[in-house]
Amino acid sequence: MAGNTFGKLFKLTTFGESHGAAIGGVIDGCPSGIKLDFEAIQNELDRRKPGQSKIVTQRKEPDTVEFYSGIFEGVTTGTPIGFVIHNTNQKSKDYSHIKDVYRPSHADYTYDKKYGVRDYRGGGRSSARETASRVVAGAIAKQFLSAIKINAFTSSVGEIFVEKPYQELDFSKIESNVIRCPDEASANKMIAKVQEIKKQGDTIGGTITCVLQNVAVGLGEPVFDKLHAELGKAMLSINAVKGFEYGSGFCGAKMKGSEHNDLFNEDGSTKTNLSGGVQGGISNGMDIYFRVAFKPVATVIQKQDALNSSGEIVEMQGKGRHDPCVVPRAVPIVEAMAALVLADYTLLRRQESQNWD
Amino acid sequence: MAGNTFGKLFKLTTFGESHGAAIGGVIDGCPSGIKLDFEAIQNELDRRKPGQSKIVTQRKEPDTVEFYSGIFEGVTTGTPIGFVIHNTNQKSKDYSHIKDVYRPSHADYTYDKKYGVRDYRGGGRSSARETASRVVAGAIAKQFLSAIKINAFTSSVGEIFVEKPYQELDFSKIESNVIRCPDEASANKMIAKVQEIKKQGDTIGGTITCVLQNVAVGLGEPVFDKLHAELGKAMLSINAVKGFEYGSGFCGAKMKGSEHNDLFNEDGSTKTNLSGGVQGGISNGMDIYFRVAFKPVATVIQKQDALNSSGEIVEMQGKGRHDPCVVPRAVPIVEAMAALVLADYTLLRRQESQNWD
Amino acid sequence: MAGNTFGKLFKLTTFGESHGAAIGGVIDGCPSGIKLDFEAIQNELDRRKPGQSKIVTQRKEPDTVEFYSGIFEGVTTGTPIGFVIHNTNQKSKDYSHIKDVYRPSHADYTYDKKYGVRDYRGGGRSSARETASRVVAGAIAKQFLSAIKINAFTSSVGEIFVEKPYQELDFSKIESNVIRCPDEASANKMIAKVQEIKKQGDTIGGTITCVLQNVAVGLGEPVFDKLHAELGKAMLSINAVKGFEYGSGFCGAKMKGSEHNDLFNEDGSTKTNLSGGVQGGISNGMDIYFRVAFKPVATVIQKQDALNSSGEIVEMQGKGRHDPCVVPRAVPIVEAMAALVLADYTLLRRQESQNWD
Amino acid sequence: MAGNTFGKLFKLTTFGESHGAAIGGVIDGCPSGIKLDFEAIQNELDRRKPGQSKIVTQRKEPDTVEFYSGIFEGVTTGTPIGFVIHNTNQKSKDYSHIKDVYRPSHADYTYDKKYGVRDYRGGGRSSARETASRVVAGAIAKQFLSAIKINAFTSSVGEIFVEKPYQELDFSKIESNVIRCPDEASANKMIAKVQEIKKQGDTIGGTITCVLQNVAVGLGEPVFDKLHAELGKAMLSINAVKGFEYGSGFCGAKMKGSEHNDLFNEDGSTKTNLSGGVQGGISNGMDIYFRVAFKPVATVIQKQDALNSSGEIVEMQGKGRHDPCVVPRAVPIVEAMAALVLADYTLLRRQESQNWD
Fold this sequence. Notes:
The structure is a homotetramer.
Chain A: E1 5-6, E2 11-15, E3 22-28, H1 38-48, E4 65-67, E5 71-72, E6 75-76, E7 81-86, E8 101-102, H2 108-115, H3 131-144, E9 149-157, E10 160-161, H4 184-199, E11 206-213, H5 227-236, E12 241-246, H6 249-252, H7 257-260, E13 278-279, E14 282-283, E15 288-294, E16 303-308, E17 313-317, H8 327-352
Antiparallel strand pairs in A: 1-2, 2-3, 3-7, 4-7, 5-6, 8-16, 9-10, 9-11, 11-15, 12-15, 13-14, 16-17
Helix pairs in contact in A: 1-3, 1-8, 3-8, 5-8
């Protein structure tokens, strides 16, 4: 397996299992001369960490990142940035009961079949704990991309959707509630829904919308590495994601060309933006926006049938401290992956741009 | 721009503009010893080619592929397969009227801003003509993957959807109608819709569903190169695609974990398949299915405002012979890209598999 | 096999066998806006082509390149440049006698064992004919790198060496003789040597020295992709190459640090240049120079024992029209590969350079 | 800079500066199911570490490696192996005197010009300390490649060469002396030479020969990723290396084809092996052997002129504890890089081999 690197020029390689000694990664290709704000990095980790509110898992992990290289006197040097987050909360015995059991809709079965050996402790490599490393790298990418505004928010939980288009939302409100929805009325309904689901020992899915603003014209590498294709891959690589759409998305598939076309203004901007800020795989300077679908967390605190490695169906009781809804903690992960794509494509754009000649 | 290669071990690199001398590509990494069925390859090209029916563009291109290397006495040699499709229908004058004009919702503007120079003839590199090279490579990948069944079909045109789940459809009927929908009743409604739209000089969007059967367990490279993430990128790299979902997709985001989990049978298969054949980014042996959203073609045969390179809004009249709905011709392209992903991941799986030791 | 692409941002993918319909390649990542000099490209091909003088193979191949894409009105567009050279001289019957025979010190045996199938006609993919595609790409890279001076020349044939250091040679004389050695006295001895060897039906090895001047400071990507490491790989990928050294090379391994260190001038240049223009894998602005060793061509026009596919030793008589010494025709190939490395590293440098911000 | 990853399927990414908190790396693509011998890994580190004998630097670093992931109950899991070596001996003040000084024939100047910022403490990223991470990964690759014998040894120091061909040497004697030369007589001369040089406060270069035995037929990816080309790049990426030759190498460039050709035995082996075990870039089953040239260490304990960042020539006095000859400590590094190349190409071979079908 060599699928643990993301990016072409701004590259992140991650390592680590949920219950190993540590997780971490290497960022290779981060430009030199960036004065890092370490508080901002830790703040992104805190947005993702467990135990931050009543509606997420009550596990406690401080998730403190240590940087080992690539930074000198607080400034990036252009050499690889190695970092580690030690796992302080490895309750391995919590998982002894699933040692030989494949939980439904988890990766236990496929990892075992693929690798012939498996770290059964809490999902090991397949655990969303790995995404903490993405958040660290994304936080650094955001500092490199300081001109670009990256905002993700919870746009639905179960059947509860934010009605307003993103243009009518105040992104400064995203952090004002625990579900990370900038529309207070919708947020309250969503939070109530998650609490109700949690009481049932059940879980629920949701969607996240992400908006990228002030993106320069010209980012994207046709034909295979179109900007939206790479954003799609980045989002689909996040645990529990089942779908991605940008601009008009699946609704666009119901429309007529005469309705769907975005007419130009004289400055090259467009009157509408059903295209979602990308034409032919290249950014056109308008807002880039997309929506990501998350399935409900597979671990429910109920009795369920599972399969054991001897091929027997066994009843299991979901235990442990799990998220009833992954969406609020996934908001910073979506932003991090978007930042990694934009950082990578900004570097790709730099090398080809006529402006530099 | 170096985004014209797809794949890690089974690699396709394409070249060519819609109105240049030729398009083509290089397939590097195709295993040796595959006896090729050249008729099958040409047949896939014929499914994609213009002029094949009343509901697609009436342009005529024979789209005959010539192979220059990598094949000896009809068998692949393991060396790169170079191929070319000559463009026989370059009516460049058709495009003189848009030389300095950026058409709405086309890539004219972004290509010009990105590269500072532009082949304005019919979209050049951004034209879907490039996908003919993908179909050639996909047809070869299919022959390498002969055990896997790959079937795509039109699942909606505008508001007209196939009601039945794919399990109730007879894939052998896909080619029995020009819209490529195996459900005859729906097909007829879709065809009528496209003809009505065409009369209006308008265009319409649609969706394609693709089903991959008999895929071995263990394909996929966590964490970033998950099988469904690469399938998503592959589909999003196709012209006019706005969204991708697999398994339960966006509907899954409305569900509860207790409803969504796929319970096991003793043989490791699952009673339901909301997961869509992938767990943790790795195939589990169940059907892989996904849905792709296509926007309506941007070229409408109506008067529209456009922008010229001097920054003036000018009225233009859509001309030429264009598709009122891209979906039927996109069916073989979706299959081709799926085949390329599966071929690549099959080779990745080979090198890591314990079974080979 | 997927080893037919060279470069990270300025990428060349080649295809083609010596006796197939055509060879060619795709250049992906060439910047847009370069006005190409097609005569200069053909001139490089002519320097490499067979039949150009009495001391090279008398095969006749016009080696005319056709460009299919990536160029519009004579200017690069930033899209992939697809090109083809048709093989006009496929005397396949010349090779029927070696259909089942593995020639000594050729790639017949290893290709057959690796791929299980083999295009036996004249070495197929392992033939140096493939390098014509490299020369086309290198010629375009040279035009992108117009500020850099790239000069290679024959520095030895057998035991005959150019005595003078390169600084005392007039590179404008390289093309003044058929062996491509700028020192006339040495050139004449080398030419006489090759003619003597040719009479014997034998072949002889030699070395090529290459000098890169006006290279900017800062090219190279530590730690694995050091500039000289990539130059070394590029040269070692050329047929018949057995060794590479840069700067002081193998002689440097005999020296003391106090002798070997290059002391600085105040402008950052150095008084000596045993380093060969690279420090820590990064160009320092001084001349980059290196030497490449070529073995004698394996095909001798003499009786030799060979192995057949049934495991029998059989006597064979070398036939055909072969080079008695590969070095003069390899000079433009060495330059082409150097140009590809410099183009690639120039683009890599662009994206990271603070100067562009 | 994103040049810190080596390999295609068996990938090593390293990070770390000589005087940062730690160095380390991530091995991605190591097959699962390998029971690791941790003592063997530490033993390789001990062969490279400083302070191991009188003729190397007297710095003391325990160089203890910690594994953070990818290993469960002593067995590789197929997930990325993250590891760290903490720097216990960061005497940063030792380097304050060179804060603004570019030492001759070091990378100080080029790093500063390339990145615009520099960790001046002991060379930072350009220090050979980084190679400890390569040795860790190489030690794991060796365990994956247990059937292959990898032996490197010191073949020259200054003008003192081992006269015997490698076939006459007993590799079990390599570790029997501190210079790592299996020929005792030559070893003693080399050791005396290094001690003499050290007394002078000077340094001296040397060469290492490496022999790879029991390599399967068919490793190598023509045309650009030929096995010997990748070995060459791997060796040239090691600090202080100035040249690489394999098989007949530079001597082969003086020979005639009739002398140089390796005639076959009936089993496909060859009577001679001037080819060095590789034909057309693919291993042929014979021994692979190559020679690597190392320049003398640039830090001499003498007065020298240097350049400061203000463009002034200043006198400096080499300080610190440095190697008078890098070759004995480089022996395990050469083996490690050879192991990484063989592991990578073995995986590449697996995926393409017909035998696995």
